[in-house]
Amino acid sequence: MFISLLLVLLIGAIAWAGAAIGLASLFGVVLPYVAVVVFVAGVVWRMVYWSKSPVPFAIPTTGGQEASLDFIKQAKYDCPNTTWGVVQRMFLEVFCFRSLFRNTLGEVREDDPVNKGPRTIYYSSKWLWAFALVFHYCFLLVFLRHFRFFMEPVPSCISFLESIDGIMQIGSPRFFWTGGLLLVALIFLLCRRIFNQRLRYISLANDYFPLFLLIAIVGTGLCLRYFDKAEIAQVKVFIMGLTHFSPVSTEGINSLFFIHLTLVSVLLIYFPFSKLMHMPGVFFSPTRNLPNNTRAVRHVNPWNPPKQYFTYAEYEDTYRDAMAEAGLPLEKQPEKAAE
Amino acid sequence: MAKLPTPQMLVSSRPAFPDKAWLDTKPEFAPGSYCYPAKKETMELLHMPNPHDWDPAAEDWNLPDNWEKILCDAFEERLEKHRSLKLFMDICVRCGACADKCHFFLGTNDPKNMPVLRAELLRSLYRRDHAMLGRLLGKRVGARSWDKNVVKELFYYAYQCTECRRCSLFCPYGIDTAEITAIVRELLHEVGLGIHWIMDPVKNCSFTGNHLGIQPHSFKEIVEMLADDCETVTGIRPKTPFNEKGHEILFITPSGDVFADPGIYTFMGYLLLFHELDLDYTFSTYASEGGNFGSFTTFNMAKKLNAKMYAEAERLGVKWILGGECGHMWRVINQYMATYNGPAPSNMQTPVSPYTGTVFANAASTKMVHIAEFTADLIHHGKLNLDPSRNDHIITTFHDSCNPARAMGLLDEPRYVLKAVCNNFVEMPENTIREQTFCCGAGSGLNTEEIMELRMRSGMPRGNALRYVQQKFGVNHMACVCAIDRATLPPLANYWAPGVTVSGLHELVANALVMKGEAKRTMDLRQEDLPNVTDDDDAAQAQGEGQ
Prior knowledge:
The complex is a heterodimer.
Chain A: H1 2-20, H2 24-52, H3 83-96, H4 98-101, E1 104-112, E2 117-124, H5 127-145, H6 147-150, H7 156-165, H8 177-195, H9 197-202, H10 205-226, H11 232-243, H12 255-270, H13 278-281, H14 312-325, H15 334-338
Antiparallel strand pairs in A: 1-2
Chain B: H1 7-12, H2 40-45, H3 67-81, H4 83-90, H5 103-108, H6 115-130, H7 132-137, H8 148-158, H9 166-170, H10 177-190, H11 196-208, H12 216-234, E1 249-252, H13 263-277, E2 281-282, H14 299-316, E3 320-323, H15 328-341, E4 368-370, H16 371-380, E5 396-399, H17 402-406, H18 412-421, H19 452-458, H20 460-473, E6 477-480, H21 483-496, E7 501-504, H22 505-512, H23 537-546
Parallel strand pairs in B: 1-2, 1-3, 3-4, 5-6, 6-7
């Protein structure tokens, strides 16, 4: 955990020092270009790597009643048997975190009055679902909001998003609730890892690193907006320069901005080589993205080996006399087989 | 078998998490924590790679000299064959939602029984070779190299997972531990590591047609004895057709049901139901196994054992196959059979119920119908004369077997049947039934005696739920649609909720079934006295007709 934290701080420090000694164009221009290239190429590379292996068996996890008899109601979203049904299931999975919504907390009681002995009770537990949802949606909205730096004129949908985001009209510049909630959600996810014994036991440096990195990104972003304010107009000119492949001078932009940009670049570079690949990965998951129709439609395995088994003929050869004696029907009677 | 601790002791003796990180702990092979190894001769007979004698408790497992290369190559090959494996190795975020969903974890509190860590055991090896960060940073990011202790660890935890898929239901990316466990078991078989309780039935099924190794003449004899017992109870001796050509239906069910109490009563239930319907069907002594212990070893072994079903359906010229009550059998049939051994032989047709005309379009390709679907359809169309009061002495609950629940979605068909044949039905708590059902604790070939305490631990969530409805609602019976359940739930119920009996669904169907020309029923299929039986024949008959 501490290694991950130190690593993030180190990255921030390097970016700050770099900007201070006049290497701002390295961290502000070269690194973002490299990061975007690595991100796109890396994600595509991993998806191609997955796709190279076939899906030999259709193994959906059925989350409800199958489609069978007409008087029995199918769980259409949790146990779809058509492609359209799978699209709906995947929609719920990706946009509503359907599976995580089921989450329960199991508590083992040693002495329960009803059971007069041990009893395991399952409480509904929606915290992880709720904060995961808050995190992902706020991240998406914050990401979209940033397009005002990338586009001129700013599309009306982005402006609309901003006006909604700042609807509470607190402070100046106006407080965007997505940014604040994003930080809250990240801190929840981090605390969960640190204070829940089970989570702490399974967590690796590669679990803490993205959390610290994201907290640092959000933290520097919030600072840039509310405290150590960046000169927005200048930043926009700079970013438009990047997007038009004609970078402009980094002169006059505060170094915190370069720390923010560097951290985002590191996130992009880290993404394809880490568990963050769950984003494209969820679409590939064979327990979710296949219909439960394997008795109605044959799923083909490209490497299906040839059939090799103990045939009936071999079986009858082995047991013919006993079968004849027991009066079981035979392909060849013992006398015939002996010839 | 060692004496079991009391349920309270069992729960309170679950150890706390170790102080050391999971990469630094090793499993302890104490008696009762592992299954006996497969015999060398068995492995040789089945042409399994690297058969050898070994003992899980010994320091040296006599692995072949080039074991590391074999395992690395085999892992590589599986990655190339299964997209699921690559994906599940890459995308886990370790959110921990799966942790307390596993019955083994709840019962043992062993952190490596959290599905996430069970998968990490393999993922750590994957990271070394396939993840940039793992290659660069090693143990810091949870990557490690193969060594003999890692092999032992994989063995230990791959056989403390019943492939029930409960975790995959709760995983936000649908990561399926059953897939990972199945592949780890495949890898272990590459270096000659298997367990006796699985490989012995596999051998039997390969060469005699069923897991128990019942030879054709004995199979016929046993079924005829069960038919005699049916006659004792009902006055009607059901027909027992074997290996006959030209019938419409081939019936296949797990062989455990012709052999062991209480499965035999379920089997008698089938015989009586089919007789009453005058079903045009046959059994086969060759395809006399519905279950598939091969599916607990390798995909190819599962395919091999499953191949007999279509081969026999073709030889006998049947139109479709009716399948009995079984769990993993239906995982194989629903998700693998057509892929393994399909398309179905050309003599087969989309199944149609001969009594109701219902077309089982959901089985259009596999041509195989689950008996709960078949019977529910009959009851819905009023084709069975049922007297549920004959089951009035039981207050029953229903245990969803993992595979029909989470690999098929067979949830309401058995309930529909159960409610029609029993007046008293109570569900267990909602997070322990239907798609969230808990395993009996001994599926996927772990229903062996030597790990009985472990089974009671992994069966704790099911046992607790059963105990709850027993204490609160007076439940004294648990119905199920799985032959392994019928073998594993009686000891589980006996331990966690003494006094609860276990049966298959069709035992209860046959108890309630009013047959044409039957003698007055005074006993159930277990030859125990029925409730509410009066000496007055007319009264009993009137009651029957009243239903």
